[in-house]
Predict the structure of Integrase.
Amino acid sequence: MARRQWIEIDDAIIDHYAAHDCRCPVWRKRGKLVATGTKRRRRCARHFVEFLRGRGAIPLVEPVADDDPHMSAYLAWLKQHRGATDETIRRYRTDIRRLMPMLGEPAQWDAAGLRSAFQRRSKETPGSASLLVTIMRSYIRFLVVRGECRPALLHAVPSVQRYRLSTLPRHVDPATIERIIAACPTDRPVEVRDKAIILLLARLGLRAADIQDMRLDDIDWRSGHLTVKGKTRRPDRLPLPQDVGDAILAYLAAARPKTAEKHLFLRAQAPFRPFRSSAEIAGIVARTRDRGGIEGVPTGSHIFRHSLATNLLRAGAGLESVGTILRHSSPETTAIYAKVDLPMLMKIAQPWPGEQSC
């Protein structure tokens, strides 16, 4: 690559660097430098540039900047009028830009081209098809209002059918949860941090994003409460269990880096910054599960939340109480757990005609 001045660094140069053909070792795995691919090179370069901007070494740039005028206006609208977070804006921009080479200019779009591009993209990431529909309809609606796209195209993006209550929530029994907690050593600072995170997930059923956003002043040590904002950004006070509080105190006293950063949990390697996304919390759960040799447990950090709700329900708690503990804004969200209370379902199940009652 050609030499560049720091002031010239932008997303296009970062993408060009990430796509170059080499075996550059840019991250560590079990203490050893490991060569990696385009995605991680791009992420590492972006983190380094953001670190330099935060220290004032290079000028700050607007997070919604884009060389496409349609995209730039849309991202600014998301930020100013919709109150979207930087992470949401980055996700929307990434998904839309991946479709642009298949579509061209908005004035040239047609229904057949939109459907074809959407189908090709959804095959690459089938789990994100529903979110892609939301993103594209939002972008098309914005372009329609500005007169840069035909109104009829808003109906060209196909719907993705989702059945909220079609499956049972994944969960594990309380004994397995305790095995995962017991698999957390505390010999190194990073392990002390990981145990505090695992306990927050297991005891309070927090979302990974709740832990990612948690700050030092969210804990009221005098009253023994923890403030969590959650999806609605409305603060909720939760009681702080004794073992969770002890684990957080151990992290603050002996493992947390000495820094002015206000987030509670930080990365263990310099620069000591907060977690980039909730996927890093899921990685901590996966490492803890593998360390304890625990098999047959679904991946991800949300398994603790599902397990807490399921085990409370089976212990006799009502759906309203479970919804309060999990901070659900709607009873319909908690209704999915009604299907796991098998004794209650057995009582209300009607016998099949001509068969004995179960």
Q: What stands out?
A: The chain has a mean pLDDT of 81. The longest strand covers residues 25-29. Residues 86-103 form the longest helix (18 residues). Residues 69-155 form one domain.
